[in-house]
Amino acid sequence: MARERGPWITSPARLRERVRAWRARGERIAFVPTMGYLHDGHLSLVERAARSAERVVVSLFVNPLQFESRADLARYPRDLARDRSLLAKARVDAVFVPSAASFYAPGHVTHVTVAGVGERLEGACRPGHFTGVATVVTKLLNVVEPDQLWLGQKDAQQVALLKRMVQDLDFAVDVRVGPTVRETDGLAMSSRNARLTAGERAQAPMLYAALRAGRASLAARGAGPLARRALAAERAMRAALVRAPLAHLDYARLVDPATFDAPAPGARAGLLVVAARFPSARLIDNLKVSLRPAR
């Protein structure tokens, strides 16, 4: 096999060789895993990674294991030339672009499952999704061997799941999280936004509006019992989403940010999460909230 040159690498062995050469020189490696079709949210993670380490690795891999169906996998947006152009302008030292056939060799049967957080909300709505996420990230971490793993807050349950996996399996990597990047109307940036019709796109910002309505409800309820305040916040979110008739609500909940179960009484912080299916794409969003009564 010819030696791969430049930042674009398709071979796991070649990437591992390059990363180990950097580490031998005492350089830290930050890793940003993506499924491509990059947007400013991804690029913000790349920028943060570049400020935190001497070397930055980005992966572009549409992971087939985390899709509910072949149809959903086929519909996922892809534009490798566009991704190449965007990354050429960023400080990236290696771009890992494996093929599904090479990354999951024939006979691949090993999967990683994270119980608890991986079974709730997104895990229940999309059976097998988080097993696919945990499996591919485990493989990527084994190839890249980074010092830092950079994730986006927009995929908050995925963040919680991977933090749990990294801790449980003793990966020697520091998980870092960049904030959600939004469009000017509040819609969280996502590769799936490209699939929305004009009518769906006009209603999609209501997910963020619903989260803000939930936050306002929590603040207005003051010092009441948390369970009662949570129910009121969830009702406020559902009421706001009535203004998006094209969206079918999967859930609107207040959860513990680490477990995605209901926050314990006395919890100081929580996470409002929402997921809705439009005819063309399914969208998720979240918002961190304080659960301490306002003084």
Describe this structure in words.
With 295 residues, the protein is α/β, with parallel strands linked by helices. It is 39% helix and 18% strand. The protein folds into two domains: 8-178, HUPs (Rossmann fold); 191-289, 2-Layer Sandwich (Pantoate--beta-alanine Ligase, Chain: A,domain 2).
Helices and strands in order, then pairings?
Elements: E1 8-9, H1 12-24, E2 29-34, H2 40-52, E3 55-60, H3 70-75, H4 80-88, E4 94-96, H5 100-103, H6 122-125, H7 129-144, E5 148-152, H8 156-168, E6 174-178, H9 198-203, H10 206-220, H11 226-240, E7 248-255, E8 269-277, E9 282-290
Parallel strand pairs: 1-4, 2-3, 2-5, 3-4, 5-6
Antiparallel strand pairs: 7-8, 8-9
Helix pairs in contact: 7-8, 10-11
SS class: alpha/beta
The DSSP helix count reads: 11
| Low-pLDDT stretches | none
CATH architecture of the largest domain: 3-Layer(aba) Sandwich
List how many beta strands DSSP finds. 9
Mean pLDDT: 95
Question: Briefly, what CATH class of the largest domain?
Answer: Alpha Beta
Strand content: 15-25%
Question: Helicity range of the residues?
Answer: 25-40%
Series of secondary-structure elements, N-terminal to C-terminal: EHEHEHHEHHHEHEHHHEEE
Task: Record the strand order, biggest sheet.
Answer: 1-4-3-2-5-6
Shape: globular
**Distance N to C terminus:** 66 Å
User: The CATH topology of the largest domain is what?
Assistant: Rossmann fold
CATH superfamily of the largest domain: HUPs
From the alpha-carbon coordinates, what is the Rg to the nearest angstrom? 20 Å
Largest sheet: 6 strands, parallel
Overall number of structural domains: 2
